Amino acid sequence: MMNYTIRTKIYICLLLLCVIPIFLMGCSPSTKREKSDHLNSLLQNAYSSQNKGNFVQAERYHRQALEYMKGLEGFPSHEIARQLSNLASSLNHLKKGEEAEKLLYEAQEILKDFPSSDVMQYAVLYGNIAESQRLQGKLKEAEANYQKALFIAEKNEKGDKIFIASDKAGLALIWAQQGKCRQAEIYYKEALPILIKRGGSDHPIVKKIQTEYNGITKRNIELNACKDST
Prior knowledge:
Order of helices and strands: HHHHHHHHHH
CATH topology of the domain at 2-160: Serine Threonine Protein Phosphatase 5, Tetratricopeptide repeat
Mean pLDDT: 85
Oligomer: single chain
CATH superfamily of the domain at 2-160: Tetratricopeptide repeat domain
Largest sheet: none
C-alpha cells in the first residue's frame, strides 16, 4: 500500500539505526558495525527498489532483511513485526494479497505479545491489511481496516500527513470500485496533492493512484455513472 512506500523508507531506516546498537550491545565494535551495516544495506536496497517501482526486487530485499533480523539474537520482536508489514507492502504491490494478509496477521499476533510504542506502526499495519483484503475482493473488511488506519493516523501523524493521504487514497479506490465515485473524488482530491508534494508526480505509486482516479472515479463522474450521484 502507498501509505508507507514513499515515506517509510526514511522513517524506518532512522528507527533501525537506533535499534541496532541497542540489541548489539554485547557484540564487539567490529561485529556490531558489520551486522548493523549489513542489515541497513538490505533495508536501504529494499526501500530504494520500492521507490523505483521495482517491487520484485524490493520483495527480495525485504525477505532477506526479515530473515536476517530473525537470526539476530535479541532483535526486538516489534521490529520483526514491522518488517513483516514492510514485506507485505511489497507483496501488495505485486498483487499477492493473500500471502500479504497472512504475514500481516503474523505481525499482528507478535504485537499482541510485544506491543510497539510507535502508534503509527499500527496505522501502517491496518492500512496494509486493508490493501491485502481489497486485492482479494474483501471490500467490506478492507474498508473497515482502512478506516482504522485513518483514525489512528489522523490522531497521531505529524508533519506532511503522508499516511493520512495514503489511507484516504486507499478508501477512495474502494469506494470507486463500489461505484461511490462522488465520495471517492473527495478523498482523491485531498490525498493526491499531498502525495505529489511528498513523492513527486513521477513516483510510481503516485502515478498509480492518479491513474486510478482518472480511470475509475473521474471517468464515471464524466459519464454520469456514479451510484452516489446527487
